[in-house]
Design brief:
four-stranded antiparallel sheet, single chain, six-stranded mixed sheet, binds adenosine-5'-diphosphate, 11 helices, Alpha-Beta Plaits, 14 strands, Rossmann fold, 2 domains, 298 residues, alpha/beta
Length: 298
């Protein structure tokens, strides 16, 4: 196991940020912590990268204990924090050199590892980091986190605030790094990114709701989700919420996701009900379950 977390809890004054969290990440695995703002993701990262001491529990990273062996951990992991962490007034190249130097290495020594990524920002190597676009900053931050060839990579919301094309490229880079044997723990509030991980932990308010592969989480979900549309979306939501056997109703892209809790549910009855409430252009179809559906239910 590359990461072992056992019953870790952490409070800030009276706020319990994480509550008895346990999970394991295998060597070479791409593991995702999926949850909204405030779920406790950053607290987990800071504990595992030895920047924060937990109140309870224990954890090891690459075989090292997060309390006793903090020096060894700092040398063997790469950490890309959620907030842009680089020196804004240093250039791209200076940032990278700086990180290489403090880890006692050089850009050349581990160039192979960052080459694919660095090539994309090299044309801007004399530009100050503060003047880079979101996607470029993220690539530079990733290079800096990788420059000492870490065994384990911690990426806290690396794609937040990044455009969709750069987000896609970023995940492709992660897959390539994984192939090089690096274990990756990544967090994201974007449920659509969850399916790109080998396994995920769904996390909410400091607790883990579920851990499994995204495929299993979807496969094991036993409720049918109806995707419903009508001309007046707001009216549709209100009417669905009033339907006697409704289990859940939430907006998802252009459709409303609707789950019913009656074993005798019939979409034609629902259609008639909605028509009676003066909804028009009604469309009801069975949709594919997404991680977001499971998360909302949990
Ligand atoms: P996430 O990364 O998922 O957004 P965090 O770990 O940052 O979650 O936060 C978890 C909870 O702990 C939140 O309720 C947050 O407000 C609280 N919290 C985080 N850092 C601090 C801090 N330094 N002082 C007080 N409360 C904090």
């Amino acid at each position: 196991m590359s990461i072992i977390v056992q019953n870790i809890s952490k409070s800030y004054n009276k706020i319990k940020a994480i509550d008895a969290i346990s999970f394991e990440v295998k060597e070479g695995e791409l593991f995702g912590l999926i949850g909204p703002d405030g779920a406790g993701k950053t607290t987990i990262f800071r504990t595992l990268t030895t920047l924060l001491l937990a109140n309870e529990g224990s954890a090891t990273v690459a075989g090292f204990d997060v309390v006793k062996d903090y020096v060894a951990i700092r040398n063997s992991v790469g950490y890309m924090p959620g907030k842009f962490s680089l020196y804004q007034d240093l250039t791209v190249e200076e940032n990278l050199k700086f990180f290489a130097t403090i880890f006692g290495t050089t850009i050349e020594e581990n160039y192979d590892l960052i080459k694919d990524i660095y090539i994309q920002i090299e044309p801007f190597k004399t530009r100050r980091a503060g003047a880079l676009s979101g996607g470029m900053k993220q690539k530079l931050a990733l290079c800096c986190a990788l420059i000492h060839a870490p065994k384990v990579l911690f990426l806290d919301e690396p794609t937040t605030g990044v455009d969709p094309v750069s987000r896609k490229e970023f995940w492709e880079m992660l897959k390539r790094l994984q192939k090089k044997g690096i274990t990756i723990l990544v967090s994201t509030p974007y449920m659509d990114e969850a399916v790109l991980c080998d396994r995920i932990a769904l996390i909410q308010k400091g607790s883990i709701l579920k851990i499994d592969s995204p495929e299993n989480i979807i496969k094991k979900y036993d409720k049918v989700i109806y995707n419903i549309k009508a001309k007046n979306r707001h009216q549709l939501i209100l009417d669905l919420k009033k339907y006697p056997s409704q289990y859940s109703v939430f907006a998802f892209g252009e459709f409303i996701h609707y789950i019913d809790n009656s074993s005798t549910f019939n979409s034609i009855d629902l259609q008639h009900y909605l028509e009676k409430q003066n909804n028009t252009e009604i469309e009801i179809k069975i949709g594919n379950t997404t991680i977001e559906d499971v998360f909302m239910d949990l």
